[in-house]
């Protein structure tokens, strides 16, 4: 049986590397999985034969789940190594030995074990295994503990007691480029082990105004990259379709542009947010004689605020302010008052605050009182329960032209796109990954909380805590119609 394999230029460089550990990143469809498979095959073919003229080699293939192993990894292997070479059982763990004779008369016994290991809770599966090579397919799915355990378990087959050695042990990894907060960034860029070679394929797409697009100053302009790899094996328009269906700038940046981005590991709260649909293509400006609403998250030392107007039925986010390790009185003086004076001095303005509204331990003032003393009319939102806050924002996001965010509101855009997430729980379940019921608190969550209080007031302005002294000027006059 003859098999014809022609590696792409980057994968050829990976094959020619003499380092024991190899990692390759590239766009989806770049041929990484096939390249990693053939790296394992080549090592098996170079393994010295034993006394029986057999080249024994054992590869453990790791992914987070068995369905992924079965539906994608196994399928790729079967496309290249047909059933005539040996069978693979589909029970867990899936395993089998593929055998073929080489031109020199020796036989290769290519043993494959498919193992689902997502995190340290499942690492015990690896502790007693003796392996030649570990191939971590889609390495972004697993934790660093899995990678570190893999380093300890390779090179143990064939065993020295049997009069043989593993000539080329190592860990092989393939993946789409993750974010800079992923452990793979540390291993492949910041603190690269001496045993590891890292290879990156060319981008599938080029952004001709990347710096300005990444800063949020201009909408991105894309062209297809003629030097992208494996194009001959992809359907026509493959990357154009991926680009058209991608709503997240960071995913485009990492997966298609091959640039390290920043991701949180979790479930995005507002998954209907789209930079294309909800970020204004030009700078927004306040309309004269139109009230300005300010949503404010007043809790702790990380206050955040967003300024907005209702313009032609759309909620237009005009500005944001965020204070890192900032007391609320300082936030008012150094954050809110300057931007109000600069942009909104001639407007009616109402601030809607976190209803927790705790008193300052030193001044005895609540945030609403502090705002009122600074000349800013303020009330509290009627609730800080997460579900109605989320629904209030989602109502604007899900309407056609329901929300337009000024592209200078970088923190809010990043939060809605990637950073405002439900934290993934360390719970194993047959129903899949489990997540916390409320979003993770981080440097991005405060401006989103501020947006939620603002939207909550606009959706349900007659909340029970709205008081007469601050709300009368707005009742029945500038309040929008109900949108739910």
UniProtKB/TrEMBL annotation:
Name by which UniProt lists this protein: Terminase
Species, as recorded: Pelistega indica
Gene3D superfamilies: 3.30.420.280, P-loop containing nucleotide triphosphate hydrolases (3.40.50.300)
